[in-house]
Amino acid sequence: MSRRRGYGRVAVAGDSMRPGLVDGDWLIVRWGASPRPGDIVVAERPDRPGLLVVKRATRLAADGWWLEGDNPAASHDSWLFGPVAADAVAGVAVARYWPRPRRVGRSKGPLAP
Fold it and tell me: What is the pTM of this model?
């Protein structure tokens, strides 16, 4: 995956990050930022090259980041595709700017809406 730098935007698709993030939300992402446990990240799904996903980085394992959705019933995450290599994590979400702007910070659980 090519390494982007700076800030960009990403749309949330699907219900895997409910209740804090919903389908149609737009996020500001800091490309190239190093995640810490609890951060919401944008990463390339290892079993589907080129597909970016928005998930929570829950822990760093020996073979990469373990990513999970906040809504386990609707999430295809590391429980399905395993850990994600550190270089496949494209960036860290810093804010939701649409529809209602707010910061998205580190969390150990679901985000408050």
Answer: 0.86
Name the pairing type of β-strands 89-98 and 64-68. Answer: unpaired
Q: Give CA–CA dist 27/101, Å, rounded.
A: 9
Kindly state the DSSP code that residue 84 receives in the 8-state scheme: B
Strands 40-44 and 102-103: unpaired
Residue 111, domain member (yes or no): no
- Write out pLDDT tens, residues 61-71: 999 999 999 99
72 falls within a domain? yes
> Would you place residue 100 in the very low, low, confident or very high pLDDT band (cuts 50, 70, 90)?
confident
Look at the alpha carbons of 82, 88, 93, 97 in this order and tell me if their dihedral is positive or negative: negative
pLDDT at 46 over 80: yes
CA dihedral 94, 47, 16, 25 (to 10 degrees): 40
Number of domains, the chain: 1
**CATH number of domain containing 84:** 2.10.109.10
Whether residue 113 lies inside any domain: the answer is no
